[in-house]
C-alpha cells in the first residue's frame, strides 16, 4: 500500500485530502506484476498508453484551435529537446493559485507543474491512470509525478505542455521537489555513517562491528535504493506466483507463521563493501563504501523452501528456473525493486534461505524490510530483498535493472563501453574478505609491552567458514594468526561473520607501521594481495588484503 500512502500523505500535507479511488490498488498491483512479464510486455503497455494519448489529442475531442496550439508547442519542445515541462513562458498570462484551485471539476480541470498552468479538461477521459488524476484537481501534479515517476519522460512533458494556458504567480510557487517522498523515512541512529541521505545508505562504524557478535539492529548497515515503503504486518500479503501457469497463492504473515520456524545466523554484506579501496586503484562507479557495509544478525521466520513447497513448487523440476523476489519499494519509473536467485538455491536445505520477520529477536525494523524480507545467507545482500511482496517462480531471471544491469562480475580490462551485462554471470556468492576495524587508518596507537592489538572481521560467502585470519605488522614479511570468535555451524553452512583479535609485535623506535590482514576460508581460498587484478567497473567483490597505516606512541 506504500504508493497509496505516499499520495495520501502528500495530500494530507497539502491539506488537500481527496477521494482516492480503487484504481490506485490496481495500479500498484500492476507494478508488482512486472516481473511476471518481460520488459517487452511492459513497454508495449506503455506504448499503448502513449498511442492512446496521441489518438485522443488529434481526435475530435479537441477544437481546431487547440490542435493548432498543440502542433505549435510540439514544434517548440522538439526544438528544445532536453527541456522539462513547466518553464516560465513570457507569452502567456499569469494566474494565482486560488484561481487555479477553482478549476477542480470535470467541466474545467486545471493543474500546475512548476511554473506552468494547464487546462487538461479535455485530456481527463484519456488519462491511462484513470481517475487518480482527480487527486490533482486545481493543484500541482508534481507530488503525484514524484511517486509515479513514469510521467517524467519527454513524451509526457511534451503532452503536458500542449495544454499550457499560463504561468503560476511567483508568490504561489511551492517547492514540490521530491521531499514528500522522503518525509516519513524511519528514525536512524546517529552513530551510523551516512553515505547518501536520499536514498538512505549508511555504514556501521568499525568500532561497533567488533563490539557485538550480532550487530544491534539500530547499528546494522543500511542500503536503500528508494524511499522506505510503509507496510503493515497485520495486513501484509505475500503473493507467490508460479509461472508459466500463473498459479497465484496469497499468504498473510499469520499463514506463513504456521510453517516450521526457521532461524539462521548470517552476516549480510553488500557486494560493494570496501569499494572505496578498489576506487583508489582506478575509479569505479557506486557508493563509496569503506568496510562498513557488512553486519551480522540472527534472522528468524520460515524457510523459503517450505513456502515454495507449500505453494506447489515441484522440487524435481528446478533446472533453469529462478525465484524472483520483489519488494514494495518503487523507483522513479514505477518499477518495484527486484532480483532473483536460482530455484535450486532457494530449495537447497543447506542454503537456509529464509523469509524473515524477525532480526535479533525483534520484528524487522522499517529500514531492514519490515514486515518481511528474504535472507539469502552467503549471497551478496542485494538478493536479500526487503519489504517482500511477491515471489515468482519463473524460467527467467528477474528482468529488473538491479538484476540485469548490476551485481555482475567483469574482467579488469572490461570498460563500461564494452561490458556485456547479458553474458556476465550474476553474483550469487561472495569471496573471502576481512578488514581491520581497530585501530583505524591514521590512528595513533599506544605500544604496550612491545605490542599493539588489532581487531576486525572476516567473512566468506556460500557457507564457507573462515578458517584462519593472518595479520602482518611488517608488510607481509611475517604473519601472526589471529584469535577467532565464530558461530558454531555445520560445515558448508557457515553464514555468520568471524570477529578476530591479533597481537602484533612492534619494533622499538618505530613511530609508524602498516597493518595488513587476510583471511583464508574452508575452501582454502584466500584474499588477493591487491586490487589490481580484481578491479572491475562496478567496484564489487573488492576483497584484497585490508592495509592500514598507523602512528605509534611508545
Ligand atoms: N526491497 C529492497 N531490498 C533490498 C534493497 C533495496 O533497495 N530494496 N537493497 C539490497 C542491497 S543492495 C543490500 S546491500 C541489502 C541491505 O540490507 P540492509 O539495509 O538490511 O543492511 O538489502 C538488499 N535488499
Ligand atoms: Mo548492496
From TrEMBL:
Q: Which GO terms describe its cellular component?
A: mitochondrial intermembrane space
User: What are its cofactors?
Assistant: Mo-molybdopterin; heme b
Q: TM segments?
A: none
| Pathway membership | Energy metabolism; sulfur metabolism; Sulfur metabolism
Q: What is this protein called?
A: sulfite oxidase
Source taxon at top rank? Eukaryota
Entry's Gene Ontology molecular function annotations: heme binding; molybdenum ion binding; molybdopterin cofactor binding; sulfite oxidase activity
Tell me where it resides.
Mitochondrion intermembrane space
Report the top EC class in one word: oxidoreductase
What EC number(s) does this enzyme carry?
1.8.3.1
Q: Which InterPro entries match?
A: Cyt_B5-like_heme/steroid-bd, Cyt_B5-like_heme/steroid_sf, Cyt_B5_heme-BS, Ig_E-set, MoCF_OxRdtse_dimer, Mopterin_OxRdtase_euk, OxRdtase_Mopterin-bd_dom, OxRdtase_Mopterin-bd_sf
Amino acid at each position: 500500500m506504500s504508493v497509496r500512502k505516499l499520495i495520501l500523505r502528500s495530500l494530507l500535507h497539502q491539506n488537500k485530502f481527496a477521494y482516492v479511488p480503487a484504481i490506485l490498488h490496481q495500479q500498484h498491483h500492476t507494478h508488482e506484476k512486472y516481473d511476471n512479464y518481460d520488459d517487452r510486455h511492459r513497454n508495449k503497455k506503455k506504448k499503448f498508453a502513449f498511442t492512446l494519448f496521441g489518438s485522443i489529442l488529434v481526435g475530435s475531442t479537441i477544437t481546431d484551435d487547440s490542435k493548432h496550439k498543440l502542433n505549435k508547442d510540439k514544434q517548440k519542445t522538439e526544438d528544445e529537446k532536453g527541456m522539462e515541462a513547466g518553464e516560465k513562458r513570457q507569452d502567456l498570462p499569469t494566474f494565482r493559485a486560488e484561481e487555479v484551485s477553482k478549476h477542480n471539476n470535470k467541466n474545467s480541470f486545471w493543474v500546475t507543474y512548476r511554473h506552468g498552468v494547464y487546462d487538461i479538461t479535455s485530456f481527463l477521459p484519456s488519462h491511462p491512470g484513470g481517475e487518480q488524476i482527480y487527486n490533482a484537481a486545481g493543484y500541482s501534479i508534481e507530488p503525484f509525478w514524484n511517486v509515479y515517476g513514469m510521467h517524467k519522460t519527454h513524451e509526457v512533458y511534451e503532452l503536458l505542455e500542449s495544454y499550457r494556458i499560463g504561468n503560476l504567480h511567483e508568490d504561489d510557487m511551492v517547492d514540490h521537489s521530491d521531499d514528500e517522498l522522503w518525509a516519513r523515512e524511519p528514525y536512524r541512529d546517529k552513530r551510523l555513517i551516512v553515505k547518501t541521505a536520499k536514498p538512505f545508505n549508511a555504514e556501521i562504524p568499525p568500532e561497533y562491528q567488533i563490539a557485538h557478535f550480532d550487530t544491534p539492529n539500530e547499528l546494522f548497515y543500511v542500503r536503500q535504493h528508494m524511499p522506505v515503503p510503509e507496510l503493515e504486518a497485520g495486513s501484509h500479503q505475500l503473493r507467490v506466483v508460479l509461472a508459466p501457469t500463473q498459479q497465484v497463492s496469497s499468504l498473510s504473515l499469520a499463514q506463513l507463521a504456521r510453517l516450521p520456524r526457521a532461524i539462521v545466523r548470517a552476516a549480510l554484506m553488500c557486494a560493494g563493501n570496501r569499494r572505496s579501496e578498489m576506487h583508489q586503484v582506478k575509479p569505479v562507479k557506486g557508493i563509496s563504501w569503506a568496510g562498513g557495509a557488512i553486519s551480522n544478525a540472527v534472522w528468524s521466520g520460515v524457510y523459503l523452501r517450505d513456502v515454495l513447497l507449500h505453494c506447489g513448487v515441484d522440487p524435481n523440476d528446478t533446472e533453469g528456473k529462478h525465484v524472483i523476489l520483489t519488494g514494495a519499494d518503487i523507483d522513479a519509473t514505477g518499477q518495484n525493486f527486484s532480483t532473483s536467485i536460482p530455484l535450486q538455491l532457494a530449495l537447497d536445505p543447506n542454503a537456509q534461505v529464509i523469509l524473515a520477520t524477525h532480526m535479533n529477536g525483534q520484528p524487522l525494523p522499517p529500514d531492514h524490510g519490515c514486515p518481511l524480507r528474504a535472507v539469502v545467507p552467503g549471497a551478496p545482500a542485494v538478493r536479500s530483498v526487503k519489504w517482500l511482496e511477491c515471489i515468482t517462480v519463473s524460467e527467467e531471471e528477474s528482468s529488473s535493472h538491479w538484476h540485469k544491469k548490476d551485481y555482475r562480475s567483469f574482467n579488469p580490462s572490461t570498460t563500461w563501453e564494452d561490458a556485456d551485462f547479458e553474458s556476465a554471470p550474476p553474483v550469487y556468492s561472495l569471496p573471502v574478505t576481512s578488514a581491520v576495524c581497530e585501530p583505524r587508518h591514521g590512528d595513533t596507537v599506544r605500544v604496550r609491552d612491545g605490542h599493539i592489538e588489532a581487531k576486525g572481521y572476516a567473512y566468506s560467502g556460500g557457507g564457507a567458514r573462515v578458517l584462519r585470519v593472518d595479520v602482518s605488522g611488517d608488510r607481509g614479511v611475517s604473519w601472526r594468526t589471529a584469535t577467532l570468535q565464530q558461530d558454531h555451524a555445520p560445515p558448508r553452512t557457515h553464514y555468520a561473520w568471524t570477529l578476530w583479535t591479533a597481537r602484533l609485535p612492534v619494533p622499538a623506535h618505530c613511530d609508524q607501521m602498516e597493518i595488513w590482514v587476510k583471511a583464508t576460508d574452508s575452501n582454502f581460498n584466500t584474499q588477493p594481495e591487491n586490487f589490481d587484478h580484481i578491479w572491475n567497473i562496478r567496484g564489487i567483490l573488492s576483497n584484497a588484503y585490508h592495509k592500514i597505516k598507523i602512528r605509534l606512541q611508545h
